[in-house]
């Protein structure tokens, strides 16, 4: 039984392998920078949405409080 030795194969090396290897650190740093930008944008949008939600809830609470106060002052008779 013969075993294939995959490590002994002649692998074709691309002609521009040196250039590709030299460009790799730049590509990795570019991808990291893009990832950081996307994460920052997403976090800013989430923070903005939370701020809008809290503002809306505060306005609704103030409106509800004003309505209750108006209802109580108009319908209650004090002696």
Main beta sheet, described?
none
The amount of helix comes to over 70%
Strand content: under 5%
Q: Structural class per helix/strand content? A: mainly alpha
**Helical stretch count?**
1
Envelope shape = rod-shaped
How many distinct beta strands?
A: 0
Topology order in helix (H) and strand (E) letters: H
Q: What Rg do the Cα atoms give? A: 33 Å
Spatial separation of the terminal alpha carbons = 109 Å
The poorly predicted ranges are none
Mean pLDDT: 87
Question: How does this model look, in words?
Answer:
The protein is an all-alpha fold and 79 residues long. 75% of the residues lie in helices and 0% in strands. The protein contains one helix and no strands. It has one helix spanning 17-75. The N and C termini lie far apart (109 Å). The relative contact order is 0.04.
């Amino acid at each position: 039984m013969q075993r294939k030795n995959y490590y002994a194969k002649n692998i074709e090396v691309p002609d521009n392998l040196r250039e590709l290897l030299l460009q790799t650190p730049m590509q990795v740093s570019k991808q990291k920078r893009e990832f950081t930008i996307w994460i920052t944008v997403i976090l800013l949008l989430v923070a903005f949405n939370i701020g809008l939600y809290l503002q809306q809830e505060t306005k609704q609470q103030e409106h509800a409080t004003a309505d209750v106060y108006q209802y109580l002052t108009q319908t209650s008779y004090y002696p």
